[in-house]
Design brief:
Elements (H helix, E strand, L loop, with lengths): L8 H25 L6 H9 L1 H29 L3 H31 L1
Helix pairs in contact: 1-3, 2-4, 3-4
Length: 113
């Protein structure tokens, strides 16, 4: 097995690890909030806790990384034109980056208030 970037093993493993974190986070979230009505005030109080804020930031990062790897693989596998492939990958990366920055802004604002 090779860890070279072009081998695909790194992407495969990263995809599985991010999926594992996403599932564990959602299970813990469902356990903590199970059956309760989530209001903005209760969510904001939860996010203000440093451990929850870090776990949520890691969740968003894992979700974006998981989406990038999956979307990139689909584009590389099914889009044959190199120029179209690059444009799609750039648009996809920009979209994920904007979503990540937007989420970071929301979490920072919620955690400070």
């Amino acid at each position: 097995m090779s860890w070279r970037a072009s081998s695909g093993l790194r992407s495969w493993l990263l995809q599985r690890l991010t999926a594992l974190y996403i599932v564990v986070f959602l299970a813990v979230f469902a356990f903590v909030w199970g059956g309760q009505t989530i209001t903005f005030e209760s969510w904001r109080a939860w996010v203000a806790h440093p451990a929850a804020n870090i776990a949520l930031l890691l969740f968003v990062f894992a979700l974006l990384m998981h989406a990038w790897i999956g979307g990139r693989d689909v584009v590389i596998d099914y889009v044959k034109s190199a120029s179209t492939r690059y444009v799609l990958l750039i648009v996809f990366a920009l979209g994920l980056g904007i979503m990540g920055l937007w989420t970071l802004r929301i979490l920072l604002l919620a955690g400070t208030g």
